[in-house]
Amino acid sequence: MLPIEIIGTGIYAPGEAIGNEELMVLAGVEFDAEKLENKLGIYRRHIARLRGLKETTADFATRAGFNAIEAAGIDPEQIGLFMVGTDTPEFITPATSILVQGRMQKEEKWSSTFDVSASCASFTIALDSAVRIMATDPTIEYGLVVGVYNMPAFIRKKDAFGISIFADGAGAVVLKRNPEANYITGQLLTDGTQWDFIGIYAGGSRNPITPELIKEEKHGLLSLQPLPGDRNVRLWPLVVNKLLQKARMDISQIDHFVFTQINRSVIEMVMDQLQQPYHKASFVMDRYGYTGSGCVPMAFHHAVKEGKVKKGDTVLFMASGAGLAVGSNLFVY
User: From 58, 146, 180, 197, which residue has the greatest number of CB atoms within 10 Å?
Assistant: First the structure.
């Protein structure tokens, strides 16, 4: 148990929300809106480029960060650790967290910055890492952890599935050292043999961007082979149970669950397996679509603001992403 607590949350999603019917018009694609709504639970989302906004990952992260800092009632100057979890960074280098620090603190400071890139599990892994850093370094009183997603920037124009699912957004939390706080533990799981299922395979050292690569449409988000249909239904209960064993806790002690917000029906199936009522889980995909590493902190923000999570509640975060990476957090809010 570590003496770090969340004292502020904030989110940001660019522009006005885009419903499914309007999305088909704006993007010039067609998809099964009824299936998207009934199975995945997605009714609308925010996409900067379709609203003509010149905003990208660092903009989303900075705005969510400022909102969280304002909610925490502190000054950006007090932040000693900036961590950004994302697999859609502003640049390959420098890290997006460095840009966020520069925009918030505006000069050289005794603060630490780095990104965590573990697909859609990036925020949960960043949160666990930030807590452990702060717990071992007494000079850091406040930390900022942001989960942010800008996958629409990497979706090819004819990819109707990608356009319908993925959206822009960011969520942030401010962490504070407090001897009475209780970050219980985290649990990670990785399977790097699944690297060639879905991802962005161009733009790195292996496949630099070239005119030929773009012509062949090998840039942007690619699905190289189908993901196992039961992956999250199998994995999430597995990791939840491992996390609870590690913490020596019973599932009845968990007040609220925040899972990756890509598919409402999957979350419901997992809650059924865990024998937990649906009201103990967050669902925000209906208003934001799928925002990858941004979705867990965004859902948590709403759970707090809507009174579903109260101070003293025990909360479990669970996120999984391509690669395969899974991150989880167990803490008292």
Answer: 146
